[in-house]
Amino acid sequence: MKVKVGIMSFAHLHADSYAHCLKTNPRAEFVGIADHDRQRAQAKAEQYGVALFDSYEALLASEVQAVIICSENAKHAQLAQMAAAAGKHILCEKPLMTRLEDGKAMLAAAQGAGVHLFTAFPCRFSPAFQKMKQLIDAGTIGELLALRGTNRGSNPGGWFNDLELAGGGAMIDHTVHVADLIRLLTGQEIATVYAETSNQMFHGNYDDTALLTLTLQNELFATLDASWSRPKTFPTWGDVTLTAIGTKGIIEMDMFAQYLLHYDDRAGRIKQVFWGDNIDALMIDEFLRVVAGEPRCVIATGEDGYRAAAVALAGYESVRRGEPVTVAYE
Amino acid sequence: MVKVGIVGLGTMGRQHMDAYLQMPDVEVAGVYDHHPDRAEAFRQQYDVPVASSFNALLECCEIIDICTPTYRHAEYALPAIEAGKAVVCEKPLARTIEDCERIAEAVHKHNTLFMPAHVLRFFPEFRMAHQLIRNGAIGTPAIIRTRRGGDFPITKSDWYADFEKSGGVILDLIIHDFDWLRWTLGEVERVYAKALTFRKLNHLDYTLVTLRFQNGTIAHVEGTWCDPGGFRVTLEACGDAGMLEYDSAQQVALRLATRADEGSAGGVQVPESPAVENPYYLELRHFVDCYKTGATPELTVTDGVEAVRIALMAIESARTGRVVKR
User: From the candidates B191, B240, B244, which should be mutated to test the interface with A, based on the most A CB atoms within 10 A?
Assistant: First the structure.
């Protein structure tokens, strides 16, 4: 039995990758698309050869068992609550929410309806990260002392630069992946955040540069660069890196450093051509398995998404107060 | 011939000696170390006169070059300044801001030709990066990241491991980056830092420092004495019109790999990329030229004081958990 899945909104650019994963995964039946942007919905339905639904309600009234939500960040809460009320399992794009109360409402709605709510954190599935976690768990670098992470990208533009719809700028966009990896690696919650932000890359009313310092338990500390600092001529979209410092050594992970460099005369630029595993496909595959009744292994829960987003929100609170703040999870 | 005297005959004393040996107009007229056996080993290696005391060194030299451990800089710098010598002093200028200010005061009082030896400014890659950024190559700088370090520096006296003497990885090592960033971006507004420095771990030190400059630029400086993988320096400067990137582990003009001898380990790592003139030579040549021509060195005592001030702000932040403002 294939798992019937619909996509709610293509506002987030990751929707195309997930749509492709659904089309190519033998466990999936990609049923259709709904989007508050009707033109976009129509174009995407044609592109993927799937049904076009007139409304989110119509999609949720269909036979789909699960939905992937790729709307603007601020709309996740409403769509997730609608999907939960309709008894559909949910995979929600990150960041899970732009306000703590929205996240709480999403978690409560999913729990109340007895549906799965997952957060799209594909970096968890990276073989490089999984190997790093194994090495640390095995004590290869001794006691963990510090972590240094980056998730830099270029400015996605559009609604990502709208504080209402995105809930912030670079910091809310790019804090959550690595915050999630740090939680997973350490088994600890991030306790405090200090953040510096600026808008000196794009000079807008949003943060395009963000540097966070995090503390965990046992004096463990980390920094995380969440800036949209990759220039237009950068050979790829950005990076996810995490370095672990231990009493016996260090591990440096550069998640997407599996590429050929292509000096492309026709395009007039140099490009990284990635040859590593498709982590979106690995995540979608587990999503489909869990919806079909198999146990969860790696995929991030709604709670994981909530806790990672809370770190980004604490970053904004730190910037407002000009000092380190305790992360508010409640 | 310009007569130079070197005090402190460890790793940096040797680096400087090697540089002076390439200068036909310089004579190392004397050297001094308060450890007689270290002075004797130096004499045997270089065939230079060992002064019987620091005062004797002052009497035979025009320029005093201070290469002692950080906590002894003021002890040698102050009498050299008082004696009217030109003084070049290894970084950091001193272990405490009080010592820095005493040195600065003496320099001003005696109108001394003085240079803190922040050699990074003479590393061609960092010099070029500074010039490119100042000339607008990346537009307005938004965020600059640097990384510096390798394994823990181990010497006979193990003074690097004594925070009261060395100031740990923040004061001893990444002061290079603090000086370069200040040279490139201007004054710092506030600093926030985390470090292993106060955990009293055995020969491990590591820090992640966030700096906010008055021009709005954010900087992230990583300093490590925790990386057994060898000394590595990286620089990434991002602005609204582009980015500059340097990684000493990626851009290697010459690579040598040999099997280690038994029992070889430790030491203080001095990075090197093949060049006609190494940065230590360029730095000391610049100072000798200033001495001969009366020109003002590119680096003044104020630069030395301010770099130490930034490092001490980072140390204070790491110790207290608070943001430290200038």
Answer: B240
Are both B167 and B312 inside the same structural domain? yes
- Residue located via tokens 């999936």: A28
Burial class (CB in 10 A: 0-12, 13-18, 19+), B173: buried
For B272-324, the pLDDT digits (tens) are 778 888 999 999 999 999 999 999 999 999 999 999 999 999 999 999 999 99
Q: Are residues A104 and A250 in the same domain?
A: no
**Average of per-residue pLDDT across B43-60:** 97
Is A259 contained in some domain?
A: yes
Q: Are residues B270 and B212 in the same domain?
A: yes
Q: Give alpha helix (H) positions in chain A.
A: 14-24, 38-48, 56-60, 76-85, 100-113, 127-137, 163-166, 170-174, 176-186, 279-291, 302-321
Count of domains forming chain B: 2
One domain for residues A128 and A111: no
Of B91 and B272, the structure prediction assigns the larger pLDDT to B91
Q: How many domains does chain A have?
A: 2
Distance separating alpha carbons of residues B26 and A285, to the nearest angstrom: 72
| Same structural domain, B79 and B228 | no
A87 and A193 inside one domain: no
Burial A66-92 (b: 16+ CB within 10 A, else e): bbbbbbbbbbbbebbbbbbebebbbbb
Domain with B229 in it: 121-277+307-325
Judge whether residue A79 has pLDDT over 90. yes
CA distance linking residue A148 with residue B273, whole number of Å:
27
Q: Is the pLDDT of residue B266 over 90?
A: no
- Name residues whose C-beta falls within 8 Å of residue B274's C-beta, 6 or more positions apart in sequence: B253, B254
CATH of the domain at B92: 3.40.50.720
B239 touches chain A (CB under 8 A): yes
Residue A257 forms contact with B (CB below 8 Å): no
Could you tell me the pLDDT band of residue B265, with boundaries at 50, 70 and 90?
low
Residues A93 and A208 in one domain: no
Last residue of a domain, which of A87, A119, A151?
A119
Q: Do B194 and A213 touch (CB under 8 A)?
A: yes
Q: Which of A200, A213, A229 sits opposite B208 (nearest CB)?
A: A213
- This model of the complex carries an ipTM of 0.92
Contact B210 A322 (CB under 8 A): no
A291 falls within a domain: no
Q: How confident is the model at residue B256 (pLDDT cuts 50, 70, 90)?
A: confident
**Is 70 exceeded by the pLDDT of residue A4?**
yes
For chain B, what is the total number of helices (H) and then of strands (E)? 11, 12
Same domain, A179 and A139: yes
Residue A193, domain extent: 123-277+309-326
Q: Which residue of A has its CA nearest to B242?
A: A231
| Helix (H) / strand (E) containing A223 | strand A221-225
Which pLDDT belongs to residue A20? Answer: 98
